Amino acid sequence: QKEVEQDPGPLSVPEGAIVSLNCTYSNSAFQYFMWYRQYSRKGPELLMYTYSSGNKEDGRFTAQVDKSSKYISLFIRDSQPSDSATYLCAMRGTNAGKSTFGDGTTLTVKP
Amino acid sequence: EAGVTQSPTHLIKTRGQQATLRCSPISGHTSVYWYQQALGLGLQFLLWYDEGEERNRGNFPPRFSGRQFPNYSSELNVNALELEDSALYLCASTYRGDVQPQHFGDGTRLSIL
After folding, report:
1. CB of A74 closer than 8 Å to CB of A23
2. How far is CA A95 from the centre of its chain?
3. Of B40, B41, B101, the CB nearest to A46
4. What distance, in Å, lies between the first and last C-alpha atoms of chain A?
5. Which residue of B has its CA nearest to A47?
6. pLDDT single digits (tens) B43-96
7. Among partner residues B58, B99, B105, which is closest to A96 by beta-carbon distance?
8. B21-25: average pLDDT
9. For residue B49, which of B27, B72, B71, B28 has the smallest C-alpha distance?
10. Between B4, B102, B106, which is nearest A99 by CB?
11. Which residue of A has its CA nearest to B38?
């Protein structure tokens, strides 16, 4: 079983919709949680970075972490066609080192 | 501030050949991480270098190797290339021992014919 499971998608929504992207994990050592956005033929771009349980908001993006349930989410409000990309969740422990990634969810926002 | 830069952008090889991929971290970053992203899959951790030393290695065969130079740039070498090595190879960097998130380059796409 993978340490990080991400809702596979693909996801297609109309412009302006609220999007919910989700990951679950099994390793209790994970303490830092990231969401990356990856456009075609590009590297992952950091969107959100959180440490503790709770919500963190940045513009139209909200990251939610529930450590008790080992569940993280990314919400996108007022989605735009430019949000069309693959979204990757990632996690790491307290020791500097590798991050463990989900397989990604491909989102298409239709005008 | 320049981001992580990787070269070449695309590399085409045949089975059995050797490939060398290069990465320059963000200025001031001393840790470099290599990941493999096969088509449609997430990132698989390959190697972590810090201060010139290999600190951690993912579940890949020994024909995947690398090094970090005194200026903190890094090379990934893949020997005896196999068809399944075709993937996007991504490099990321952070400050030493930093748990801040990794910043990625745009990768080298390695195609094995």
Report:
1. no
2. 21
3. B101
4. 38
5. B101
6. 999 999 999 999 999 999 999 999 999 999 999 999 999 999 999 999 999 987
7. B99
8. 98
9. B72
10. B102
11. A103
Say which amino acid occupies A32: Y
Alpha-carbon distance values, A4 to A28, A64, A86, B2, B42 (Å): 11, 16, 16, 31, 10
| DSSP-derived secondary structure for B58-87 | -S--TTEEEEE-TTS-EEEEE-S--GGG-E
**DSSP track, B90-111:** EEEEESTT--SPPEE---EEEE
Count of beta carbons in the 10 Å neighbourhood of residue B76 = 24
Cβ-based contacts of B21 with chain A (< 8 Å) = none
Residues 6+ apart with CB under 8 A from A109: A13, A14, A15, A17, A19, A79, A80, A81, A82, A83, A84
Tokens describing residue B6 = 């990787």
Locate B2 and state its tokens: 């320049």
DSSP-based helix, strand, coil % in chain B, nearest 5:
5, 50, 45
Cα(A75)–Cα(B38) distance, integer angstroms = 26
